[in-house]
What does this fold into?
Amino acid sequence: MSTGELIALACALSWSVAVIFFRKAGDDVHPVALNLFKNTLALVLMVPTLFLVEGVLFYPTGSWDLAILGVSGILGIGIADALVLKSLALVGASRWAIVECLYSPFVIGLALLFLGEALGAREILGAVLVLSAILCVTGLRGARRRDGRAILHGTLLGAAGLLTMAVGILLVKPLFARVSLLWVIEVRLIAGVLGSILALLLVPGWKRALATLRPGKSTVMIVVGSLFSTYIAMILWVAGFKYNDASVAAVLNQTATIFTVVLAAIFLREALTWRKVAGTVLALSGVFLMTTRDVAVGAEPPTSGEKGETMASGDPAKEKQGEVATLGGGCFWCIEAVFQQTGGVLAVRSGYMGGTIADPTYKQVCTGTTGHAEVVEVRFDPEKVSYRKILEVFFRSHDPTTLNRQGGDVGTQYRSAIFFHGDEQKRVAEEVKKELSEKKAFSTPIVTEIVPATNFFVAEDYHQDYYELNKRAPYCQAVIAPKLRKLGLEE
It folds into this structure.
């Protein structure tokens, strides 16, 4: 077994240990107050962790990305976790372990609706097995009426919490490709703490609920459960997905169901009934079917080379043709999408230019200290579209009047720039800029810099063809699609 697989199993075990401690503490502590405590503790620990691992306390992040992270944290941590903790208190640890398997079909179903990911027979069968498992463990035969209602109520709360959690994860999924994972966790935790405070204030008698956190016999269980769930398990989860294929990590993470059922029987004295055993088998079988497909939810998108030969895919065989224009106009995802749908363009690649170091990473460029701009290398057929036309599209596709900024993206890496290749391109660029300025095409002066092209460094694979591969992602829907419609490039 590889190190990555051991990490993923450790994540599952860590989460199961946390569930046991939370179940014990749940008898004495209000779930919303407990959620606030665990999120606050995790945030306090995550801040120095980010600094020790990555050497920074803050990553420059666009306002749109921060808004997405904030909403994701409020939903997925501030609200969803409170519902989950209440569900755990009502249904017990072993039943909860099976209810938790709803998370996978929720994520896959939402990915189908909002990210355009495929849904096949394996996913449908897997979802049916998971739902069968839920029905199996929520069977009320032999249970007292009051207990049966509590189990049903807890199962519905758990399902609502897991659905909300899945929405939170799907919101930030596109950001995993371009933002530090630890930074994603930290911002989501900040929002989660704020969401937990808001949720607590909405609880009738919130002061009494908060008072249940006072030091007592449950204190140790609360602290240990919080440490294992929101800090240790979270770091192991990130590492597991980093060092394994997404499908492998997802399956190994779900072994938490087995760990929790066994630990609940040993430490909580919860009966290990045939329904729970059958439910565990059905749920794990369903999750296995759903998470071992060819392209798993959470896997990195295919690179442009895997996509096939399209007109603007950056195909290496076409790079020897045509003329090259290198342009910077804010986030390269937007500019790339524009030129991929412009007639006469042969290929478009996202990358970096104009900096002081070789082979920069996206993370380095985002600090704003390398001097690079996010650019696109546009290879076009001059017999079908002129360099002047390329520049006219460029100026219409972004705001060339804001210095080192495009919308919510702020920093020198987002500057408006034309990197010319030869004297003729320089002449045309200066001419077009002068004409637009004289016509007062923009209400404020154009700040686009016109400088010689230097070394072009291709951006990471997951930045290539971004809009084409993620059309339903929130950023693409809110920023790129309206830009394309405005330019008449997409209906």
